[in-house]
Write a structure and sequence with these properties.
Distance between the termini: 21 Å
Helix content: under 10%
Number of helices: 1
Number of strands: 54
Structural class: mainly beta
Shape: globular
Largest sheet: 6 strands, mixed
């Protein structure tokens, strides 16, 4: 198993220089200090940490606080930690929690402050106006906060009076006040008579608390039995979680569809949805009541955390364990071939020698721990900069992100460069090209590397270490070749991490002419909806096919002369080495056809022309027995594939057909077929060369039939 950790180290002096703009927010400068605790929430896209001086830093989608990068989500992102300014009267922060595009934190004055999205009143200030600066949550007069926890669009807090207060969206009763009415000002959760609270936790659509009697109470959405009361009925007031007899709770957490608790016996108990093994009982079966997580023999739990569909814990032996969904590496196992479920806790590796975890938390698809050395370590999804490691990795390409280490920030620590041009995955580039990047903070020089090897361990075409400008030139590049490039910054011997790696491809020579295969030269009795086939041509990405009713067989130099425009009856472009004619040809008629190959360099010459003669009949099928009897969608072949695969299907009668490809998020990737088709056997080629490795689904729909199959693309 490879290391899954990305150390996120920060000293205050470096943060002051790297993020000087934050000084405008009223930051108080103290002595340098390491992180004491890291905070998040199961529905967030950001993390945050508080150091020994009470300073709060946040990274990822930063909820309107500090714009650094505009990412695919359209939200402001911070790829490295940014310090949060103090509201008037606040000199340090005590704790924090991250919701969906909003953050809440408790100041040393005991008040809760929030910033970010506020469309349901989740900032608790009595409005539904978004805020780019911290605003105070309107707790009842005289009540301060002991804890705060953010769900997707609501929040809960433990008050100094022992009561629980909630605010924001309430469509499932997640405010726990006996109603389903949203409220932008905190309302009191209706705990059972005489029961106060010792701890609270908010999941995306439900919340939980440990009562003064040691029992766990939950309220809100319960569609996956996540309230743990042996039902699937939503509740707008707290109901008791049915822990095993004699077991009370010492800590709680939750994911999107399940609950977690550390029992008084030290074991972890889990309940609710389990489709990805997040309950840790070696199954994927839902549980209506708490069941014991299958930790290693003799190992109890010191801390727990729930992400969207995974769980994590710090064991009594000092090990960190994770289990559940592993699509983005959140369960920290080296699986890159497909989404994988980890159904029992597995220890994760990669911490430096002597470092152990002192705190643990999780967001949607990422996890964080604080080490006993004061550093924050992170793993999982990082498309929005959630890991705070200075670069974005992970989705939408999925898989486990490559660990990136950001050294300790010091005054002269240079920032990580951002590549500008050529754009990532640029094609048709010349053999001499200028590489450009943005100036990095504190950088005095740069090292630029370009290689045909994505690991940069061989074939370094450019390896310049004396670049003082933000550009470099690569010359003499080979035609039709893919190259990779990256840059790091330097300041008096102190180097940054490398930038993200971008790729480019130089222009290709046009492909050679194809060789025709079927129908063979002068073949007769060819079906009127003929299938034309030819041999693949090196470097070709697609082919142009023409069929005409006049001409003669020509040699390559003048084969186009056989085809005059008014007599071309079929002219199309495909990515495969075969095509089925979209409309029937005339019966008993001689046809001429040829094919030309295309790649990024352009179109090559046409093949030698060939001749075939159609048979008799509507579809030139000799008997009805040759038509398929039933609708069918076959498994693609090959599977897994790289980069092309063939999809076959049968139509027993004429239908309007669509064949589309989707990614695992349900987003349409491409439409392969969208046309009326006659009965018959069909095959379609799918080329995934421009897509990321991963699982895709193809769906066939007709007037009377639909089917879906899964395929795996591995580069």
């Amino acid at each position: 198993m490879n290391s899954c950790f990305s150390p996120l180290r920060r000293s205050l002096s470096g943060l002051i220089s790297t993020f000087a703009v934050a000084l405008l927010c009223g930051i108080v400068v103290n002595t340098p200090a390491s992180a004491q605790q890291v905070f998040a929430g199961p529905d967030g896209y950001a993390g945050c940490a508080i150091d020994a001086n009470g300073n709060l830093y946040t990274w990822g989608i930063d909820q309107y606080f500090h714009t650094v990068v505009t990412g695919p989500s359209g939200n402001a992102q911070d790829l490295t930690p940014v310090q949060v300014g103090f509201p008037s009267g606040v000199t340090s922060w005590k704790s924090a929690s991250v919701g969906f595009l909003f953050t809440l934190a408790i100041g040393n004055d005991g008040n809760i402050y929030g910033w970010g999205l506020n469309n349901y009143g989740q900032l608790g200030d009595g409005s539904i106006q978004n805020s780019s600066v911290p605003v105070m949550v309107k707790l009842p007069k005289g009540v301060t906060a002991e804890e705060v926890s953010a769900g997707e669009t609501f929040a809960v807090a433990l008050g100094s009076d022992g009561n629980i207060y909630a605010w924001g969206q309430n469509n499932y009763g997640q405010l726990g006040d006996g109603t389903t009415v949203n409220d932008s000002i905190p309302v009191m959760v209706k705990m059972p008579t005489g029961i106060t609270a010792k701890q609270v936790f908010a999941a995306p659509f439900f919340a939980s608390a440990i009562g003064s009697d040691g029992n766990v109470y939950s309220w809100g959405s319960n569609s996956t039995a996540n309230l743990g009361d042996s039902t699937k009925t939503n509740s707008s007031v707290p109901v008791m979680v049915k822990m095993p007899a004699g077991i009370t709770a010492t800590a709680i957490s939750a994911g999107s569809s399940f609950g977690l608790a550390i029992g008084s016996d030290g074991n972890i108990y889990a309940w609710g949805g389990n489709g990805f093994g997040q309950l840790g009982d070696d199954t994927t079966a839902l549980s209506m009541v708490p069941i014991k997580v299958d930790m290693p023999s003799g190992v109890t739990a010191k801390a727990i955390a729930g992400g969207r569909l995974f769980s994590a814990a710090i064991g009594s032996n000092g090990e960190v364990y994770a289990w559940g969904d592993n699509l983005y590496g959140e369960s920290c196992t080296d699986t890159i071939d497909a989404p994988k479920t980890v159904e029992i806790p597995e220890p994760i590796t990669g911490l430096p020698s002597g470092v152990s975890a002192t705190s643990l938390t999780a967001i949607r698809w990422s996890s964080f721990i604080t080490g006993n050395n004061g550093d924050v370590y992170s793993w999982g999804y990082n498309q929005e900069g959630e890991l705070g490691i200075g670069v974005k990795t992970g989705g939408p390409k999925y898989g486990i992100p490559t660990a990136t280490i950001i050294p300790d920030f010091v005054l002269a620590q240079p920032g990580v460069p951002t590549l500008i041009s050529p754009a990532n995955n640029a094609v048709n580039q010349p053999d001499s090209i200028v590489l450009k990047w943005q100036k990095a903070p504190n950088a005095t020089a740069y090292i630029c590397q370009l290689s045909s090897d994505p690991t940069f361990s061989t074939n370094l075409i450019v390896n310049d270490s004396t670049v003082t400008d933000t550009m470099d030139t690569a010359v003499g590049l080979a035609q039709g070749t893919k190259y990779y490039w990256r840059v790091l910054s330097e300041n008096n011997g102190v180097m940054s991490a490398f930038s993200a790696t971008d790729s480019l491809a130089t222009s290709s020579p046009v492909p050679p002419k194809p060789v025709l295969a079927l129908p063979t030269m002068s073949q007769t009795g060819v079906p009127r909806r003929a299938t034309l086939e030819w041999n693949s041509t090196a470097t070709a990405t697609k082919y142009v096919i023409q069929v005409a009713t006049n001409g003669q067989v020509y040699t390559p130099a003048d084969s186009m002369g056989a085809f005059v425009a008014q007599n071309v009856v079929f002219d199309t472009t495909v990515t495969d080495t075969s095509v089925v004619l979209s409309s029937p040809l005339a019966a008993s008629t001689k046809y001429y056809w040829h094919v030309a190959a295309i790649n990024a360099g352009g179109m090559g010459v046409y093949s030698d022309s060939s001749i075939f003669t159609t048979g008799v009949g509507i579809l030139a099928v000799t008997s009805s027995a040759q038509l398929p009897k039933v609708f069918a969608l076959s498994q693609n072949y090959p599977n897994p594939f790289n980069p092309t695969t063939m999809i076959r299907y049968n139509l027993p009668k004429a239908q309007f057909v669509t064949l589309k490809v989707y990614n695992v998020l349900g987003q349409e990737v491409t439409t392969l077929v969208d046309a009326q088709q006659n009965a018959g056997y069909y095959q379609v080629s799918f080329n995934a060369d421009q897509l990321a490795s991963g699982v895709y689904f193809y769906i066939l729909r007709t007037n009377n039939y639909s089917a879906v199959r899964k395929m795996l693309f591995l580069k």
